[in-house]
Amino acid sequence: MAGAERLDGRYDYIVVGAGSAGCVVANRLSADPSKRVLIIEAGGRDDWIWLHVPVGYLFAIGNPRSDWMFRTEAEEGLNGRSLAYPRGKVIGGSSAINAMISMRGQREDYDHWRQLGLPGWSAEDVFPLFRRLDDHFLGDTEHHGSGGEWRVEAPRLRWDVLDTVRAAAIEMGIPASQDFNTGNNEGVGYFHVNQKRGLRWSSARGFLKPVLKRPNLRLVTEAQVDRLVFDGLLAKGVRFRRGGRWFEATAEGEVILSSGAIGSIEILQRSGVGPADLLRSLGVPVAAAHAGVGENLQDHLQQRMIYTVRGVKTLNETYHSLPRRALMGLGYALFRRGPLTMAPSQLGIFTRSDAAQERPNLQFHVQPLSLDSFGEPLHRFPAITVSACNLRPTSRGHVRIRSADLHDKPSIKPNYLATEEDRRIAADAIRVTRRLMQQPALARYSPAEHVPGAGIGDDTDELVRAAGDIGTTIFHPVGTARMGRAGDAGAVVDERLRVRGVDRLRVIDASVMPTITSGNTNTPTIMIAERGSGFVIEDARNGT
């Protein structure tokens, strides 16, 4: 392409994005020493201390050093608010700044994918992959494995207030759970986390860094891919910008987009693969008309209710006390324990919004702290945050480029609470939260609803409006390049993650999910990368 230098070297595969999925893909494809793999990352290296100390998410999210700083459009369902939409900007991607919660979802999530006409994606197919990826503190069990690259540990800190919330949930009739990752995550318990001895375990740390010494694997960072390079409808490479210069790299095998539910869509649309009317309106030549590229955006909306408490410690007091903070830092430095090892949420609850639900449709993240929003200081009064999210929202949004300029951030519109079902479940989630906090076990701590406030009554319309006021993303965008069977006009990729109508191009990341999983989405994304890498290797072996 005119104006671009050719990147030196010959490559069989180009992987675009060294995030949660891309690190896995690069690892697996470069395991064959005869295959040359180039992985291109738009962000930088993970060489900042707060990307490794678990509590560093407080500083990494909302920081342009580590976050792409996207924002949503104004959301009608959120009463006109626009939300910050964090995405990781270093190797490891969002696994470098996320909640570190190890969560597979429910068996029914994957069986539903199979029922949509996607062979090879049932729970029976994918749960062995989760087990194979595991390096789990429980060791080799029916549900977990050891020796894999994806480290999972128990939390290294307990809080009396969270133990009491757990007891309150059990009083409500929610069963105790020691492990949310058995296929049925109903219950209350502590989340398992992607950490190793008190340090964050990102996809880069688990899958990419250990294999960068391979002579057939090359990582290029701070290189933003503008578009794909086509020969007709065959993807033969990518064009990217690095250090003010333009480069072009070519692949003799496949180009694999692993830039996530936002980034992969931007690249596809700038390359002319997407909704024809949108592309023409922006002056982008249409290479392959795909109505579904950027559509079907799904996310978990969390409703962050805050309760003040008395007579029990929360992180708020420690945060505002210099001596306590000094002791906290010393404890971490010496023993890798204490509040600095905390994931954003420690206690989890999976339950039903109403008795008619066939399986849990609400997930609670309970935190021994409170703040107005990520990036803001903790409150000066003792409080906890009890966030509920609808696990299977029916609202659908979109991601669309605003222009052909790679520096223009895309239009992101999740369309939260756009359906009557989502609004009803949002109201019910507030009711369930209030019932939880009124249980006898918590009475000694005198919990008082601070947000949205006891002045909000039980009327459904009033609760829906309150949900719009307090709702925020839990950072789980998926589905924007969804899988689908042949003949599905909205499907972007087939069940082997090949982009329909384009040769030698796949998408392997969270964007291919047809429906969102019932829980945190990072571990399912790792599984998709494992599955997709296998497809690439199998198809190359079979010459298909």
Question: Overall pLDDT, averaged?
Answer: 96
**Unreliable stretches, pLDDT < 50, 5 or more residues?**
none
Oligomeric state of the chains in view = single chain
What overall geometry do the principal axes of the alpha carbons give?
globular
- CATH overall fold name of the largest domain: FAD/NAD(P)-binding domain
Question: How many discrete domains?
Answer: 2
- Which homologous superfamily in CATH is the superfamily of the largest domain? FAD/NAD(P)-binding domain
Q: Biggest β-sheet, characterized?
A: 8 strands, mixed
Task: Count every beta strand, where a strand is a DSSP E run of 2 or more residues.
Answer: 26
Individual helix count: 13
User: Helix share of residues?
Assistant: 25-40%
| Structural Rg | 23 Å
For the record, the CATH class of the largest domain is: Alpha Beta
Assign the structural class, choosing from mainly alpha, mainly beta, alpha/beta, alpha+beta, or little secondary structure. alpha/beta
Tell me the span between the first and last alpha carbons: 28 Å
**What fraction of the residues are assigned to beta strands by DSSP?**
15-25%
CATH architecture of the largest domain: 3-Layer(bba) Sandwich
Quick structural summary:
The protein has 544 residues and is of the alpha/beta class.
Report on the structure:
By secondary structure, the protein is of the alpha/beta class. It folds into two domains: 1-104 and 193-297 and 398-407 and 477-483 and 492-539, FAD/NAD(P)-binding domain (3-Layer(bba) Sandwich); 156-190 and 301-390 and 415-476, Cholesterol Oxidase, domain 2 (2-Layer Sandwich). It has 13 helices and 26 strands. The strands form seven sheets. Strands 1, 2, 3, 11, 12, 13, 14 and 26 form an eight-stranded mixed β-sheet that branches. Strands 8, 18, 19, 20, 21, 24 and 25 form a seven-stranded antiparallel β-sheet that branches. β15 (273-274), α8 (276-281) and β16 (288-289) form a beta-alpha-beta unit. The longest helix is centred in the last third of the chain and has 21 residues, at 522-542. The protein is globular. The two termini are 28 Å apart.
